[in-house]
Batch of 3 targets.
Target 1
Amino acid sequence: MISDLIDRDDRFRGILDRLSSKSIDDYYNPYRLFEWPDALPADMWWMSPELTTTHGTDIAAGLGEEQLHALSRHESMNFYSLNVHGIRELLIEVVRRIHTTGFETPSEFFHHFIGEENEHMWFFAEFCLRYGGRIYRQPGGGVASPSEQSPAVESLLVFTRILIFEELVDHYNAKMAADERLHETIRAINRIHHQDESRHIAFGRELVELLFEEVRKTSTEQELQGISDYLRRYLTYSFESLYNPQSYKDAGIANPLEVRRALLESPARAEAEAQVFRKTRRYLEKTGLVR
Ligand SMILES: [Fe+2]
Ligand SMILES: [Fe+2]
C-alpha cells in the first residue's frame, strides 16, 4: 500500500514538473501578443454558428443573416464574460489553497496557473469591453452544494468545478481557434487559451483523482452519492450559463426570457450538452465521481 502511495506521488510530481516546464517554455507576454483592431466587422460570424445556443432551432430558422451575425456577436460576448467570471472565482479558490497544508506538492504549479489565469481574465475582459462595451453579468442562482462538507470534500468539489469549467470552455476554444470564418483576433484568443488550458486540464484531472481517492476512504455511501448528484447538477448548470437572455435581447430577439426557456427545454440543448461534456462525463464516471 505504501509503495502504491509513493508511486502515485512520484507520478504526480513527474506530471507537475513536466507541466511547469511547459508553462515556462510557452511563456508569452499577453499584453503584446494580440492585435486589437479598433473594431471588428459586424457582418461576419463572431462565434461559430454551430456553437451558438440557437443553432438548429426554430428561433435561428426565423432569422436573417444580419440578425444571426448579431446573435453570434452577443453570444460570444456572453461566452467571454463567462470566462471572466469563472476565472475570478477559480483564482479565489486556488489562491486560498496555495502553500497551505495538503497543497505543498502542487504549489509550484499553482504559481503558473494563477499567473496564466490572471492573463486570460485580462484578455477576455479586454475583448468584451473593447468590442461589446461591457462584461455581461453572471447568472444568479448556482447549485447548492452538499451540506456539511469536510475541508477535503470542499477542495474536491472546488477542483472538480474548476475542471468542468475548463473543459467546457476548452471545447469552444478548440473549435473557434480552427474556424476560418472567424476574425483572426477571435481565433488567436481562442487558440492561446486552448494552448494554456490543455496544461490546466491535464493537471486538474490528476489532482481531482488524488483528492477523490482521499475522500473516498472517509466518506459514507450516502456522502458519495451526494457528491455525484451535486456534480450532475453542476454540469447542467454550467452548460445553461451559455444561454443568457441578455445576449438574446441585445441581438434584438423578442421575449428573451421565453426564448431562453424554450431553448433550454429543446432536444437540441440536451444533445449539445451531451456532446460538449462527452469526455468530461466519461472521466467523471471512470473515476467514480459521477455514478
Ligand atoms: Fe484560463
Ligand atoms: Fe485554466
Target 2
Amino acid sequence: MFRCKNCKTVDRFELMFAPDYQGSKTFQMAYNKKGEIEITVDGYKFVPDLAFMNGFAVCKYCGSIYKWEYQ
Ligand SMILES: [Zn+2]
C-alpha cells in the first residue's frame, strides 16, 4: 500500500482529506474483482494511486501532507 515518507508509517488505506478539500467528504471503500481497493468519494469512484494520495491524502499519524510513496 502506501507509506508516509515522513514518519514511515504504512497505511493500509485510511484516507484523510487535505485541509482545503471542498467536497462533502463522504467516502466508501470496497474491493473490486481484481482485489484492488476502490474508493468512492462524493460519488466519484476510482482506484487510488500515488498521484491521488499526494494530491489529497494527509497522514493521520504525523499530519504530513502529500508525502506518500509506494511501499
Ligand atoms: Zn506520517
Target 3
Amino acid sequence: MHLIPEPAVIVMIGASGSGKTTLARTWPADYRLALDSYRWVVCGDAGDQEATADAVFLLDAVLERRLARGLTCVVDATNARADVRRRLIEAAHAHQLPAAAVVMTAPLEQCLTRNARRPDNRRVPDIEVRRQYQQISLARPGLHAEGFDHVVTDDRLLRLRLLLQRAADRHPDHQDDVDPSEHARRVLARRFFGEDLAEAFNWTQLRPQHDPIGALTIGGEEITLAYRTWLPNPMDWGFEAQVPCLGGCPGPAWVPVHGPMDLLATYDDDFPEDVVRCDRCGAGATSREAV
Ligand SMILES: [Zn+2]
C-alpha cells in the first residue's frame, strides 16, 4: 500500500474520464481543489472552457492560502501540461511541502466511454481526450525529473477504506442512545432526498403496522410523504406524496415520488393524473395493495 505523506500537494494527472474526481472524493472536501468547481464558481457552468483562466486564478489563490497554513491540497484537474505541473510543484516546494503525482491508469477506451456519458456541457471532444492521454503517457516517465517527490498510480492507492472510514465518522451506524430503526429512517430520508432536503424532512407518524409518514417543511409550506412498503420486492418500496383527491373528497390521495424531481412536480401540481390514488373514495389509480 502506498501512502502519500501529508501535508502535501497531491496532483492528480489524468485525461478527462479517467476517474480523477471519484478518487479525489476520497480526500476530505476541503482538500479538493477542482478546476471544474472553480469554473462553476465564476460562471455557473463547470464545463465552460472560457472560464478556465479565472478558475485557475481562484485555484491558485486557494492553493496558496491553504499551503501557507500547511494544509494538504488535492488538485483535481487534467494536469496534462508540464508548465501546469511545474507551477504546482513550485507552490508545494515554496512552502517546504512535498509534491505528489497521482497518475490515473484508466485505459484510453474507458476515458472515452466515461467522457461520452457526461452531460453536454461537461463532455470534452474525443480528440481532446486522446491528446490529453497521449501527453500524459509521454510525461509519465519524467515525472520524478520534473520535481515530484512522489509518483504513484491510482491503482496502488488504497483509498476505499479511508472513504468508508470518513463516511462512518460522519454517519455512524448508531450510537448507543439512538434507536437503530430511528437511525435507519434518517438514512433513508437522506438517501432519497439528498442532504439538503433531508434537513427539512422529519418523520411525523410512526405507528406499528402502518407505513411511516413524514413531512418536508420549510417555513409554512409542507409536503406530506408516506414510505410505502407494501410491494413484495423491497427494491420497489418508496415514497408517496400526499395530494388533493381528484375526485373532490377530503382524501388523502397519494402520488408516487421517486426523487426531488417528482417532489417538484408534486409541489407544482404537475403530475400525471392517472398515478393519483385516493385512500378514501378510491378515485384514480388502482390501489397498489391489490398487487
Ligand atoms: Zn377521494
